[in-house]
Amino acid sequence: MPVSISETDIENYAKDGALLIKNLFTPDEVSDLREGIDANISHPSSRAKVASNESDPGWFFEDFCNWQENSAFQRIIFESDISEVAAKLMCSEQVRLFHDHMLVKKTGTKQRTPWHQDQPYYNIEGMQNISFWIPVDPVPLEWTLEFIAGSHQENWYLPRTFLKKEAKWFPEGSLSDPPNIEENPEKYRVLSWELEPGDAVAFHMLTLHAGAGSGALRRVFSVRLIGDDIRHAPRDWETSPEFPGLSDQLPAGVPMDHKLFPVIWPASKA
């Protein structure tokens, strides 16, 4: 049965910028995706990177933009209910793929994902966007993502590299750093959920979020999708991920009408 998205879900996503969706994927879809993630780990692309220190007893590894080569990723993006769910939560007539992002933390990883927003790392402007964080392993509360409710409606914060805290994107001082949430926890409403394979968290690309290390293997596939109001915003720096040559093909301020960003709703359901 397709996942039911209620008016309350739509309202909560708009208000909080993050929403738990139980059983978004079937056991067969999860199994297929797990195999796709393992294939990506075994054969990483040139865009892959290790996001943990050499001294870390675990391993935090990520890779980007592999949907064209990975058939399991394609099936989740183009054949699951994810595009229809995205259209409803974004209140968008059309949904495009922006990119995919695979993340794995091996058992014992200490590296914490610091508080950050995703959109400042990207080359897009607009508010109709959504990310799906899809684990294929159980994720208890102590290793899950945390979100600051409503933070997508506030400022853009300075993006930094996770390990060295460098401002490689917007220049130092051009945006403020994220607030110190641990020092003032009473000021924030933190959302977090325990997840089982098949569950997903949907969140806005401007929602502040962070994550702990992991005491067990945690493999995650993330899909970034964009809606009607998203426009191309070329940067003077290398974005994460980078789309080489895109600025020569797609002017600033236009929709992301390009083969790298296919329409997945409603065209894929026709």
UniProtKB/TrEMBL annotation:
Q: Does the keyword Transferase apply?
A: no
Q: Which GO terms describe its molecular function?
A: 2-oxoglutarate-dependent dioxygenase activity; iron ion binding
| UniProt entry tagged with the keyword Oxidoreductase | yes
Which portions of this protein are annotated as coiled-coil regions?
none
| The entry's keywords | Dioxygenase, Oxidoreductase
InterPro entries from the entry?
Phytyl_CoA_dOase-like
Q: Which PANTHER family match?
A: PHYTANOYL-COA DIOXYGENASE, PHYTANOYL-COA DIOXYGENASE DOMAIN CONTAINING 1
**Name listed for the protein in its UniProt record:** Phytanoyl-CoA dioxygenase
Could you tell me which species this protein originates from?
Answer: SAR324 cluster bacterium
* The organism's taxonomic lineage, starting at the top: Bacteria, Deltaproteobacteria, SAR324 cluster
